[in-house]
């Protein structure tokens, strides 16, 4: 019987996604300590196998340090085209079956199955969907089923690797109680350390602390933590639509054929929405460029790409599309750039061949843009036609960074 307010939420998570795809491509890698990432001394680990984790290796760790912990680890450079392909294949399978689903990242999905127990039985249905995904993709995937998103995600983590776990309605608090506070989603090292300094080590202890006291300790985050510790999460499953996009366009004061100027505008526009993409912690899987000629004919061309939010990757695709699209040699009235097929995700995971320096550079640039505005720091190429002596200090600094990091 479905009680008032009772929901049924499933969480699917592809286990060690990048590693699993690499093992699918090369079966000899199974059961071995495998690292996915760049191979230089200053590269970082994008993903690692369970066997590698036993040595203390984790994602975002410098590759050099990972190899000290496990000298015999195998390194694969990463194939984001393949990862994107499999992510979309799983998305298509879920979209063809689920009444309502959310793609929360490249390898995670939430499904709202509320009311389905009246007809099929949610656990049976999700188990069959999981088997279907594994059969069609040959990839391991774990499943958690509960009354809300947070508990279902924790259940999935407990079911890994390649398992499933269902938490009956009303048993959420008891399920979470014996766990360490770090098991609660979004509890990082700093928050966990603050709680442990106050003697709070388990979710049970956290759930018993007065919510007002937690708020005094941690601010609004304290209220959220109290709810999570008590198995409460009202956040909805947000319907996934590939059509969601971030875009910008510019109508020129005077129609132009100055390709140097147009190129600089493409750089400026791509940087603008690239920063917006990273600010929302999203990746794009499709780039579109739009041209409107002086006779008002409007043409567009789009390209599906591996999920990314890295400016140097996006700029390459935007330029490629523009040169493929611009074939009339007429004056241009307007240009536009759009990123679509958005998924949640951190841009660092696409930087397989980049170093700690490159990641730090992106973080520093985004930090400056967050404080002062996206337009404060731009590539020197977005100021085409200006002599270097006429550039603003931040533009000169960008040119210096570009010389040091040519890929950027």
From TrEMBL:
Q: What coarse category fits the chief subcellular location reported for this protein?
A: cytoplasm
Q: How does it assemble?
A: Monomer.
Q: What class of enzyme is it?
A: transferase
- Could you tell me what this protein is called? DNA polymerase IV
The taxonomic lineage of its organism, from the top, reads: Bacteria, Pseudomonadati, Bacteroidota, Chitinophagia, Chitinophagales
Similarity-based family: Belongs to the DNA polymerase type-Y family.
Give compartment(s).
Answer: Cytoplasm
Q: Which domain of life is it from?
A: Bacteria
* Organism annotation: Chitinophaga barathri
**Chain's role:** Poorly processive, error-prone DNA polymerase involved in untargeted mutagenesis. Copies undamaged DNA at stalled replication forks, which arise in vivo from mismatched or misaligned primer ends. These misaligned primers can be extended by PolIV. Exhibits no 3'-5' exonuclease (proofreading) activity. May be involved in translesional synthesis, in conjunction with the beta clamp from PolIII.
What the entry lists under InterPro entries is as follows: DNA/RNA_pol_sf (IPR043502), DNA_pol_Y-fam_lit_finger_sf (IPR036775), DNA_pol_Y-fam_little_finger (IPR017961), DNA_polymerase-Y (IPR050116), DNApol_IV (IPR022880), IMS_HHH_1 (IPR053848), Rev_trsase/Diguanyl_cyclase (IPR043128), UmuC (IPR001126)
Q: Which SUPFAM superfamilies does the record cross-reference, listed alphabetically?
A: DNA/RNA polymerases, Lesion bypass DNA polymerase (Y-family), little finger domain
Q: In chain numbering, where does the site feature Substrate discrimination fall?
A: 18
GO biological process, any: SOS response
Key words, A-Z: Cytoplasm, DNA damage, DNA repair, DNA replication, DNA-binding, DNA-directed DNA polymerase, Magnesium, Metal-binding, Mutator protein, Nucleotidyltransferase, Transferase
| Domain UmuC as annotated: residue spans | 9-188
Its required cofactor(s), as named, are: Mg(2+)
Q: How is the cofactor bound?
A: Binds 2 magnesium ions per subunit.
Q: Which GO terms describe its molecular function?
A: damaged DNA binding; DNA-directed DNA polymerase activity; magnesium ion binding
Which PROSITE patterns does the record associate with it?
UMUC
Query: GO CC terms on record?
Result: cytosol
The protein's annotated catalytic reaction(s) are: DNA(n) + a 2'-deoxyribonucleoside 5'-triphosphate = DNA(n+1) + diphosphate
């Amino acid at each position: 019987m479905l009680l008032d307010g009772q929901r049924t939420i499933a969480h699917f998570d592809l286990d060690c996604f990048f590693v699993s795809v690499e093992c699918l491509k090369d079966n000899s890698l199974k059961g071995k300590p495998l690292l996915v990432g760049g191979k230089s001394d200053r590269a970082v680990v994008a993903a690692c196998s369970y066997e590698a984790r036993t040595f203390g290796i984790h994602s975002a760790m410098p590759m050099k340090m990972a190899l000290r912990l496990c000298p015999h680890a195998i390194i694969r450079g990463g194939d984001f085209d393949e990862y994107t392909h499999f992510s979309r294949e799983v998305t298509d399978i879920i979209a063809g079956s689920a009444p309502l689903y959310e793609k929360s990242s490249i390898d995670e999905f939430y499904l709202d199955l509320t009311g389905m127990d009246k007809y099929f039985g949610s656990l049976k249905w999700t188990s069959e969907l999981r088997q279907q995904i594994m059969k069609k993709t040959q990839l391991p995937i774990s499943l958690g089923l509960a009354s809300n998103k947070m508990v279902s995600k924790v259940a999935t983590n407990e079911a890994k690797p390649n398992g499933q776990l269902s938490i009956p309605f009303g048993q959420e608090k008891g399920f979470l109680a014996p766990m360490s506070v770090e098991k609660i989603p979004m509890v990082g090292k700093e928050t966990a350390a603050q709680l442990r300094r106050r003697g709070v080590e388990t979710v049970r202890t956290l759930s018993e602390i007065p919510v007002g006291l937690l708020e005094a300790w941690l601010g609004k985050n304290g209220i959220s933590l109290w709810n999570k510790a008590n198995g409460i999460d009202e956040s909805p499953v947000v319907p996934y639509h590939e059509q969601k996009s971030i875009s910008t366009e510019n109508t020129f004061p005077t129609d132009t054929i100055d390709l140097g100027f147009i190129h600089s505008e493409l750089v400026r526009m791509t940087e603008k929405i690239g920063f917006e993409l990273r600010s929302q912690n999203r990746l794009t899987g499709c780039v579109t460029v739009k041209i409107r000629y002086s006779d008002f004919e409007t043409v567009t061309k789009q390209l599906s790409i591996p999920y990314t939010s890295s400016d140097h990757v996006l700029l390459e695709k935007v330029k490629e599309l523009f040169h493929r699209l611009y074939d009339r040699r007429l004056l241009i009235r307007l240009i536009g750039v759009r990123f679509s097929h958005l998924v949640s995700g951190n841009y660092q995971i696409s930087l397989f061949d980049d170093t700690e320096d490159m990641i730090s550079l992106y973080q520093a640039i985004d930090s400056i843009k967050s404080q002062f505005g996206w337009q404060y720091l731009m590539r020197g190429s977005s100021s085409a036609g200006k002599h270097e002596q006429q550039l603003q200090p931040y533009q000169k600094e960008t040119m210096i960074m570009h010389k040091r990091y040519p890929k950027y």
